[in-house]
Specification:
Blueprint (H helix, E strand, L loop, with lengths): L9 E7 L9 H4 L5 H14 L4 E9 L3 E6 L4 E6 L3 E8 L7 H8 L6 E2 L7 H8 L17 E4 L3 H37 L4 H5 L2 H9 L1 H21 L2 H9 L1
Antiparallel strand pairs: 1-5, 1-6, 2-5, 2-7, 3-4
Length: 244
Amino acid sequence: MARKLADLETMMLVQDFQPQHWNWTNDEKKQLGNLGEMGKIIKSRLENAGCEILEMHGIRHDKDENKIWNEYKMDYDINFQSNHAHFIAKFKKGKGKTLPELAKIVGVEESYIEKPKSGRYAFDNMLSYLIHIKYDKKYQYDVHTVYTFAGKKYIEHYRERYESWMRGRAKKSVASTKELVDFLINGIADGAITFDNIVSNEEWMKVYIINSSRIDTAINAREKAIKQQKLLNTPNYQERLGQK
């Protein structure tokens, strides 16, 4: 027996502004790129389908980046992602729809509707993601560029949750440095990354400040190993070894 899909209480819609990606009328498509009007259209579509919206917000993301490693520069090349929008909505309990239904109502493919992660802070995490406040490596969007289409104004959420969101940012930042420090130590061991490389890269320098003891140990160990290697290759040292 097929498992019944659950109605979602929150959702995030992520899509660009290309007309072929929206199953909208021609008049609706004329508003693509106009966040204020797009939000009104999406809200109207949801409400006409029986959804009861408690909150709805939206923002344009036009400065998101992808980082690609450049081994020649020993740094990242930056590529910008396509201009797109994020719309999030919270529904009254029992007044949402399933993911396939929401996609059809809004007029996009199912893959562009994100389900909330489990936990009581699912919608709060969606709220914070609109401006990337918890992700210090992502572009930080201005809180005043977020549109509110229903419910509490976004700026009120921002003021109430700022401290908590910044604590979450610090936690994510420290966790990400633990992954990067292994990359740096491996590069130091291979001779591909030097201390000068580290201090000339803002992200790496932050990792060094938080994990200086581990990285210093790796740098000193490599220098010691190279020094001993050179000593082993000197003729006098080889002669002394041969006499033992």
